[in-house]
Amino acid sequence: MNIKKLSMFSVLLLTACVTINIYFPAAAAEKIADEIIQDIQTLEPEEKPQAKINPQSTVPAWQVSVYQFVDQAISVVIPSAHAEANLSVNSADIRRITADMRARFGELNTFYDQGVLAIKADGLLTTRGKVSLKDRNKLSKLIAAENADRYKLYQAIANANGHPEWAKQIKSTFAQRWITNAQSGWWYQTANGSWKQK
Amino acid sequence: MTIVKSTCLRKFRPLYYRILSTCLLFIVLSYSSAIPALDSVTFSVDKISANAWSLQNAQLKITQLDQATSQVSLISAALQLPPPFDRLHKLTIRCQKFIWRENYVDCQQGQGDFNSKDLKAHAFDFSFQVKNKKTKLIINDLAWFDGKISFDVQEQSGKWKVHLKAKGLNLMQLEPFLALDLFDITQGLANLDIELTGEQGDVQTLFATVLLDQLSIQGQQGDFASEALTLKTELRANKEEKAWQWQSSTEISSGDLYIEPVYLAIDSAHVITLTNHGLWWPDRKKVELANIEFEHTNLARLQASAAINYQSSLIIEVAELALHIPELKPVAPIYLAPFLEASALEGIELQGQLEAKLQLQQNVLSEINLNARHLTLDDTEQRFSLDDANAQIHWTKQANNKASFLNWQGLKLKAIAFDPSQLDFSLFDKQVKLLQPADLAVLGGIFSIQKFSFSKAENNEDSVVHFEGLVDKLSLEQLSTALKWEPLTGSISGYIPAVRYENKTLSLDGELKMQVFDGEVRIKNLASSGLFTNFSRFYMDLEFDSLDLGTITRKFHTGNIEGKLSGVVQNLYLENWQPISFYAWMGTPEDDDSTHKISQKAVENIASIGGGSAADVISKGFLSLFSSFRYDKLGFGCYLYQGVCQLMGVEAVDNGFYLIKGGGLPRIDIIGYNPRLNWSVLLERLRRITASDEFIIE
Q1: Which residues of A touch B575 (CB under 8 A)?
Q2: pLDDT digits (tens, 9 = 90+) for B450-495
């Protein structure tokens, strides 16, 4: 009888447990993408007030690993429930990368306006049309630096949220938002590969 | 009239035209002796081929045989030429005056024309002569590629000479025949004058003058391009036994040129010339560049010599380069700035004179000797500057005994100016070592570097740094003025036993002591990363010891407080000089026996940190009779985390904490009840200091 009660109790325990899988928060990603892009693409003569920065310490890496391990272990035997998390953009890496991108935007903006700099469908930058020989080196260096920073930014956001594997989805979200936030006159690539001017 | 049909000449070997002419002559003479009344001959060929050439459906006709000069015409349906030329159609060659006799064939006033898919229809004049084994062919005004081409070919006893002149060739039309893989031509005209001499199949001399005008090219990788370039080059080369000796000179007199990452706008005042001579051993796959001279007029001159072999891969066995720049100001934006674009050093402006000598061995830079005079360096971001500096830099790949030095009349790091001074050091490979201690006068004191060495790790960005130094009596007044802080008085001294550079972070051991406000502030565990970037970070611990509150409050006009102040700021972390996190506590020292008094204004200001207002209570109450109050101790703490300051006071009370605990008469207590405050709000209140939380007066 006791054994039967114990078995029943175990079953109840198992069925009562719910695994919460943190799915990529697409809506939150769009929101923070917009915030970051608009922050980067705001031309201001001076640095933005640091009051906007909300510092936070990151969870130690070992804790993240433990949480992930426990989550995966439970997922094996227990039905999953779905939840969507918010995204944090508070890490020194993100602030450092966005500071560089903000500083670079002034020069990029000139080339956007000239129509020789365009946003590809994947959210990365490329040259478009004939670039004067005088500007060719500057523009290619800017594009290389900006594209590298965009990759770093996506990974930094993913890392700051304890999900390094989200970098690809964050890149995909940003790809759309870079185009959405493009200013009038800028060139961008549509999903079918054609080029359009905003 | 006699018609001869033959297919005897199916195969041609080299010297086609000589064989053809001899064969024709033989046939014509044979028939002419057999038939005295012969006045014309027609010679038809179905096909003649040789290597990549072939002539189809050809008809050779000789008329006026009975006169002193005959006429010859060759009409062919098609002539196939070797690649890259294509098939010529309707080839017609006529000699208005044709003379032949033994050892003599002469074709004068020749005219030819043909059709071609790529070359289109073309006509040309020519003459041809074979005389005593000397052959001469001249083709004039061949209208190819929108220009005119002339050939003069001579041959005698196996020795030959070819002279090609071309004028106004459209390079875009010529491009398909040049088989260029590296770039595309989008515009350009060419004038050529090329003379070749040789014997049998060997070329022995080459003289060429090439003038390219309005040349626009585009590298396939985008790494080089030109627009409207005017370029003239002359090449003279002759073969000596197994080596070619050459001399060449090239002048670019106008246009734009891009060779990644350098962009050159060339005009008459800044012509580029490149001259060189040397030897080339084709069999040994070796080139000896005896002298190369590159000059950008009025800007820079580079001389070089080198030995190169390309047996398995391109190897510069040895090379020496000498660079002379009379004035860096116009040169740096052209030749230096492109390399610094989008890097931390972008925006540097240079002036001064520069001489440099470089040596390479086996593709590796082995030595640099550099002499800079009257060097001025400015950074548009105002991170650093150098004024009237002189430097002799000796760098070698291997250990180096030569000393280098850098001296200056002015040096600025950020806004901090150093007096004139000099550093003596040695350089080799990835190492720098200070040769003797340097006392740098700065901020009214001395920054003394006792020992310094730096070596870059081979496979990562970390570096090994050995440093020992001290700062002695740096003026806080000068420092605060330079950094545009509220003016401070006092000095900074300290001993720095070691410095580390790891993970892009520079860390200082030891501590810096600031004698300030009649007390002492100690800075420990100072570290920084990204110092000259858009995102500088600092880490440090601070300790305050017995600072005089009277001096501080008078300096910052916060209302007078008398007493001492000690405290700590631990784990202070700043980004772009803005505090991000720290734990701070400052308050009355335990053993402080000084007078503890606080003015009305100071009471209001301290109370205002909590968010309330004390001004009315004090000014309207009887306490307005007192200009100051006594206190036992005061204290204030903040743990900054995630943008929120967790406030602490000198002592807990009910649901709050004492910021000031009164003592004596008239006594005043200030108690805070709000333990959490947004950091930005706190900063704003500290700036305004106009409100108060709550105060209790007893």
Answers
A1: 50, 53, 92, 95
A2: 999 988 876 666 678 888 999 999 998 898 888 887 778 888 998 9
Q: What is the pLDDT of residue A17?
A: 52
Q: How far is CA B577 from CA A47, B525, B528, B529, B678, in A?
A: 12, 17, 11, 12, 18
Mean of per-residue pLDDT scores for chain A: 76
The conformational region for residue B678 under phi > 0 = left, psi -120 to 50 = alpha, else beta, is beta
What is the distance, to the nearest Å, from the Cα of residue B288 to the centroid of all Cα atoms in its chain? 28
Give the mean model confidence (pLDDT) for residues B399-407. Answer: 87
Closest CA to B196 of B160, B165, B169, B167: B160
Secondary structure (DSSP) of B613-668: --HHHHHHSGGGG-SEEEEEEEEEEEEEETTEEEEEESEEETTEEEEEEE-SSSBE
Q: Which of A56, A99, A136 sits opposite B258 (nearest CB)?
A: A136
Q: Which residues of A touch B263 (CB under 8 A)?
A: 133-134, 136-137
Q: How many CB atoms lie within 10 A of CB A44?
A: 10
B54 contacts B80 by C-beta, under 8 angstroms = yes
Q: Where are the beta strands (DSSP E) in B171-223?
A: 183-199, 202-219
Residues B87/B72, Cβ–Cβ less than 8 Å: no
CB B519 within 8 A of CB B550: no
Nearest chain A residue to B640 by CA: give it: A55
Q: Nearest to residue B517, comparing CAs of B482, B565, B474, B473?
A: B565
Taking any CB pair shorter than 8 Å as contact, residues of chain B touching chain A are 222, 225-227, 256-258, 260-263, 265, 338, 341-342, 530, 533-535, 537, 575-576, 578, 580-581, 640-643, 679-680, 683
Least confident of A83-97, A172-186, B229-243, B380-394: A83-97
- Look at residue B30 in the predicted model and tell me its pLDDT: 46
Lowest mean pLDDT among A59-73, B97-111, B270-284, B667-681: A59-73
Q: Which of B227, B195, B229, B190 is nearest to B210 (CA)?
A: B190
- For this complex, say whether ipTM is above 0.85: no
d(CA A136, CA A134): 6
Contacts of A135 (CB under 8 A, 6+ apart): A111, A116
Q: What is the band of B642 on the pLDDT scale with cuts at 50, 70, 90?
A: confident
| Residue A137, pLDDT score | 92
